[in-house]
């Protein structure tokens, strides 16, 4: 499988394009921001230490994994042609036709403007239409109410527990959520 589709996806000023190694500066800045990694990097428990900002080398390794891992499809989220975050699919199970998705809106002014909803909608279209997947799963921290609301709006349903996360001096649940192709299609405007 190629790492990303060559075609860009567009919705309401939000476009997805293949993530590139040349996106390094933005990814470094976002992964050095404690507010970004607090919501995107899972730390299972206090024995692993608190969530800390990434060094440039760690951010470069992270970007390299996003771009080069053959088991991922990673996209840059662009708002009016400016790179504001990343979204993608990982942990594919080709036999069951499932994958896990992720999103990180690193650009603070772009948050709470519907960018995540539009980017995830485009990603789900790629997952179900292009990749022919049957089910997408994700993990979301229990304290991330805006993300939980976004996923429910898109049709995701609760799917058990995904693990634990250490933040703010305590252990939080990581909720699993999932959406299957039929539920996604039923949530489309042409339903």
Q: What does this entry look like structurally?
A:
With 191 residues, this protein is an alpha+beta fold. The chain has one domain: Aminopeptidase, CATH 3.40.630.30. The protein is built from six helices and eight strands; from the N terminus they run E-E-H-H-H-E-E-E-H-E-H-E-E-H. An eight-stranded mixed beta sheet has the order 1-2-3-4-5-6-8-7, with helices on both faces. Strand 1 and strand 2 form a beta hairpin. Helix 1 packs across helix 3. The longest helix has 16 residues. It starts with 8 loop residues before the first strand and ends in a 5-residue tail after the last helix.
Main traits of this protein?
single chain, globular, 191 residues, disordered N terminus, eight-stranded mixed sheet, Aminopeptidase, 6 helices, alpha+beta
Helical residue percent band:
25-40%
Strand arrangement within the widest β-sheet reads 1-2-3-4-5-6-8-7
Rg result:
16 Å
Number of domains: 1
* CATH fold assignment: Aminopeptidase
**How far is the first residue's CA from the last residue's CA?**
29 Å
Provide the CATH superfamily.
Answer: Gcn5-related N-acetyltransferase (GNAT)
């Amino acid at each position: 499988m190629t790492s990303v589709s060559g075609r860009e996806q567009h919705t309401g000023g939000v476009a997805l394009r293949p993530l590139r190694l040349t996106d390094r500066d933005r990814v470094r800045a976002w992964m050095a921001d404690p507010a970004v990694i607090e919501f995107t990097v899972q730390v299972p428990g206090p024995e692993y230490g608190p969530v800390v900002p990434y060094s440039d080398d760690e951010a470069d390794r992270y970007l390299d994994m996003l771009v080069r891992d053959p088991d991922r499809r990673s996209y840059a989220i662009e708002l009016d042609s400016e790179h504001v975050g990343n979204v993608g699919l990982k942990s594919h199970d080709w036999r069951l036709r499932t994958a896990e998705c992720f999103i990180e809106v690193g650009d603070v002014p772009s948050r709470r403007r519907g960018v995540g909803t539009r980017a995830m909608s485009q990603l789900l279209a790629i997952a179900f239409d292009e990749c022919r997947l049957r089910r997408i799963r994700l993990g979301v921290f229990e304290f991330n109410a805006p993300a939980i609301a976004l996923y429910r709006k898109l049709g995701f349903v609760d799917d058990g527990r995904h693990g634990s996360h250490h933040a703010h001096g305590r252990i939080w649940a990581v909720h699993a959520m999932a959406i299957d192709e039929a539920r996604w299609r039923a949530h489309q405007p042409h339903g």
